[in-house]
Amino acid sequence: RRGATSRWAPYLAMLPPEEEYRSFHPAYLEAAVLEFPDELDAWGGWAHSFHTCYEEVYKVAVGDSAVTFAEAYHAFVTLGARKFETMGMVPLFDLANSGGPDFVNVAVVWADETNDSVCLHALRPLDAGEELVVSYGLEQLDPLTIFQLWGFAPDASPMEFPSHEWRGVCMALQPHVFPEPDEIEYPVAHNYWRFAQEHCRPGWDTHPAERFPAEVDAADLAVDEEVCRQDAETPSWTPFCAWLVRAC
Fold this sequence. Notes:
Blueprint: H1 9-14, H2 18-21, H3 42-62, H4 69-82, E1 106-110, E2 118-122, H5 143-150, H6 164-173, H7 187-199, H8 208-211, H9 218-230, H10 238-247
Antiparallel strand pairs: 1-2
């Protein structure tokens, strides 16, 4: 609200505006185009909770001085996309991009035992003007989580045989029947479409013969079916179990 008088004005001016997030980020998925289950549209649940907080807590507390919901939500999305797990959103730190292990050249470290100060530590000698690349922890997250947090995902995994959970994701995405949305009119939906095409290979969402290696027999499928009976209420298993019942 201080505009150009704020000492943070140059930094704030570099942050993505709402219009940019609307061009790709799952937080702004066009609801009229796609309706996904919660595990594929985490922002749907987060936005609902945030709206409740905005209406019932924030606006009550600050009254007429409240920012609009659109402004508050933009700030919420920015924070979610740019924060570090252990220290929140730290100005300038969040400008470092991410990359694979071969590209990471700096690491986030605490300066002392009090955890009051934090530094970016160079992992090797850096050239003047070289881009700083920090790990976002991508190697510890599945592609869908990465996509929902940041609106992008690494190149499709080279795995030949996906996990049960990933089969469930592909079944819910249904890439074989997912019509390509108009990229101009529905950019976020189109980003989901691209993700589905890149991360779900043909057959992972419909054909059991292409999902299971040849050595898997009826006994193994019976075990999977029993696991489904026991864990049917677990969200991550639900799509896979639905496929198992239909396909086997």
